[in-house]
Design goal:
Elements: H1 3-15, H2 21-35, E1 41-48, E2 53-60, E3 68-70, H3 74-82, E4 86-88, E5 106-114, E6 117-126, H4 134-148
Antiparallel strand pairs: 1-2, 1-6, 2-3, 4-5, 5-6
Length: 151
Protein backbone atom coordinates (compact mmCIF):
# COMPACT_ATOMS: atom_id res chain seq x y z
CA UNK A 1 0.00 0.00 0.00
CA UNK A 2 1.36 3.42 -0.93
CA UNK A 3 1.80 6.31 1.47
CA UNK A 4 -0.95 8.20 -0.40
CA UNK A 5 -3.32 5.26 0.14
CA UNK A 6 -2.39 5.09 3.82
CA UNK A 7 -3.01 8.76 4.61
CA UNK A 8 -6.85 8.57 4.66
CA UNK A 9 -6.65 5.38 6.73
CA UNK A 10 -4.51 7.18 9.35
CA UNK A 11 -6.99 10.08 9.39
CA UNK A 12 -9.89 7.64 9.75
CA UNK A 13 -8.26 6.11 12.85
CA UNK A 14 -7.64 9.54 14.40
CA UNK A 15 -11.27 10.57 13.82
CA UNK A 16 -12.73 7.33 15.26
CA UNK A 17 -14.68 8.49 18.33
CA UNK A 18 -15.08 4.98 19.75
CA UNK A 19 -11.35 4.56 20.43
CA UNK A 20 -9.29 6.02 23.27
CA UNK A 21 -6.14 7.99 22.43
CA UNK A 22 -3.89 5.00 23.21
CA UNK A 23 -6.10 2.70 21.13
CA UNK A 24 -5.77 5.14 18.21
CA UNK A 25 -1.98 5.25 18.61
CA UNK A 26 -1.83 1.45 18.69
CA UNK A 27 -4.12 1.20 15.64
CA UNK A 28 -1.83 3.57 13.70
CA UNK A 29 1.20 1.46 14.71
CA UNK A 30 -0.58 -1.70 13.58
CA UNK A 31 -1.65 -0.12 10.27
CA UNK A 32 1.90 0.99 9.47
CA UNK A 33 3.44 -2.31 10.55
CA UNK A 34 0.93 -4.31 8.48
CA UNK A 35 1.10 -2.07 5.41
CA UNK A 36 4.79 -1.29 4.92
CA UNK A 37 6.96 -4.38 4.60
CA UNK A 38 10.13 -2.82 6.03
CA UNK A 39 8.42 -1.27 9.10
CA UNK A 40 9.25 -4.06 11.56
CA UNK A 41 8.79 -2.17 14.86
CA UNK A 42 6.53 0.87 15.07
CA UNK A 43 5.99 2.79 18.28
CA UNK A 44 5.66 6.09 20.07
CA UNK A 45 7.75 7.62 22.82
CA UNK A 46 6.49 10.58 24.85
CA UNK A 47 8.59 13.22 26.57
CA UNK A 48 8.71 14.05 30.26
CA UNK A 49 10.41 17.43 29.98
CA UNK A 50 10.94 17.82 33.75
CA UNK A 51 12.78 14.51 34.04
CA UNK A 52 14.33 14.87 30.55
CA UNK A 53 13.25 11.35 29.64
CA UNK A 54 11.21 9.63 26.95
CA UNK A 55 8.61 7.04 27.92
CA UNK A 56 7.42 4.22 25.70
CA UNK A 57 3.84 4.51 24.52
CA UNK A 58 1.83 2.18 22.31
CA UNK A 59 3.88 0.08 19.88
CA UNK A 60 3.74 -2.96 17.61
CA UNK A 61 6.70 -5.30 17.26
CA UNK A 62 9.15 -7.19 19.38
CA UNK A 63 9.14 -6.45 23.09
CA UNK A 64 11.67 -3.84 24.17
CA UNK A 65 13.52 -3.15 27.41
CA UNK A 66 13.82 0.51 26.38
CA UNK A 67 10.75 1.85 28.16
CA UNK A 68 12.53 4.97 29.46
CA UNK A 69 15.23 6.74 27.44
CA UNK A 70 17.17 9.78 28.71
CA UNK A 71 17.22 12.83 26.43
CA UNK A 72 20.38 12.70 24.32
CA UNK A 73 20.83 8.91 24.54
CA UNK A 74 20.31 6.81 21.44
CA UNK A 75 18.52 7.97 18.32
CA UNK A 76 15.26 8.70 20.12
CA UNK A 77 17.03 10.66 22.84
CA UNK A 78 18.89 12.70 20.24
CA UNK A 79 15.63 13.61 18.48
CA UNK A 80 14.19 14.73 21.82
CA UNK A 81 17.03 17.29 21.98
CA UNK A 82 17.47 18.21 18.29
CA UNK A 83 13.76 18.41 17.33
CA UNK A 84 14.78 17.07 13.90
CA UNK A 85 14.03 13.88 12.01
CA UNK A 86 16.79 11.30 12.31
CA UNK A 87 17.27 8.59 9.69
CA UNK A 88 19.86 5.90 10.42
CA UNK A 89 20.55 3.85 7.26
CA UNK A 90 22.76 1.36 9.16
CA UNK A 91 22.58 1.22 12.95
CA UNK A 92 25.94 -0.59 13.16
CA UNK A 93 27.63 2.59 11.90
CA UNK A 94 25.99 4.80 14.56
CA UNK A 95 27.98 5.58 17.73
CA UNK A 96 25.10 6.68 19.95
CA UNK A 97 22.73 3.82 19.10
CA UNK A 98 20.90 1.81 21.76
CA UNK A 99 20.71 -1.74 20.40
CA UNK A 100 17.18 -3.11 20.62
CA UNK A 101 17.74 -6.36 18.78
CA UNK A 102 20.33 -7.87 16.49
CA UNK A 103 17.62 -7.99 13.80
CA UNK A 104 17.34 -4.17 13.66
CA UNK A 105 19.42 -2.82 10.78
CA UNK A 106 18.06 0.73 10.37
CA UNK A 107 15.84 3.25 12.13
CA UNK A 108 13.84 6.40 11.50
CA UNK A 109 12.60 8.74 14.22
CA UNK A 110 10.34 11.72 13.55
CA UNK A 111 9.42 14.19 16.32
CA UNK A 112 5.81 14.85 17.28
CA UNK A 113 4.99 18.53 17.82
CA UNK A 114 1.95 19.95 19.56
CA UNK A 115 1.70 23.76 19.55
CA UNK A 116 5.37 23.95 18.59
CA UNK A 117 6.54 21.73 21.47
CA UNK A 118 8.21 18.36 20.87
CA UNK A 119 6.03 16.08 23.02
CA UNK A 120 7.37 12.80 21.65
CA UNK A 121 8.12 10.89 18.49
CA UNK A 122 7.30 8.01 16.24
CA UNK A 123 10.11 5.45 16.08
CA UNK A 124 10.40 2.81 13.37
CA UNK A 125 12.95 0.02 13.21
CA UNK A 126 13.61 -2.04 10.10
CA UNK A 127 15.30 -5.38 9.55
CA UNK A 128 16.58 -3.98 6.22
CA UNK A 129 19.63 -1.75 5.73
CA UNK A 130 18.83 1.71 4.30
CA UNK A 131 15.14 1.33 3.35
CA UNK A 132 13.96 4.80 4.45
CA UNK A 133 13.52 7.59 1.91
CA UNK A 134 12.45 11.20 1.96
CA UNK A 135 8.94 9.90 1.22
CA UNK A 136 9.00 7.96 4.52
CA UNK A 137 9.97 11.14 6.34
CA UNK A 138 7.17 13.18 4.71
CA UNK A 139 4.63 10.44 5.38
CA UNK A 140 5.64 10.12 9.05
CA UNK A 141 5.49 13.90 9.44
CA UNK A 142 1.90 13.66 8.13
CA UNK A 143 1.16 10.83 10.61
CA UNK A 144 2.47 12.97 13.47
CA UNK A 145 0.43 15.98 12.33
CA UNK A 146 -2.65 13.76 12.54
CA UNK A 147 -1.59 12.36 15.95
CA UNK A 148 -1.05 15.93 17.23
CA UNK A 149 -4.80 16.54 16.80
CA UNK A 150 -5.34 14.14 19.73
CA UNK A 151 -3.53 16.47 22.16
Amino acid sequence: MTFQELKPKVTEIILNTTLSRDEKLLAVCQLLSDSISYYNWVGFYFANHEAKTLHLGPYVGAETDHTVIPFGKGICGQVAVSNNNFVVPDVSAQDNYIACSFTVKSEIVVPLFVNGENIGQIDIDSHVIDPFTEEDEHFLEFVNEEIAKLY
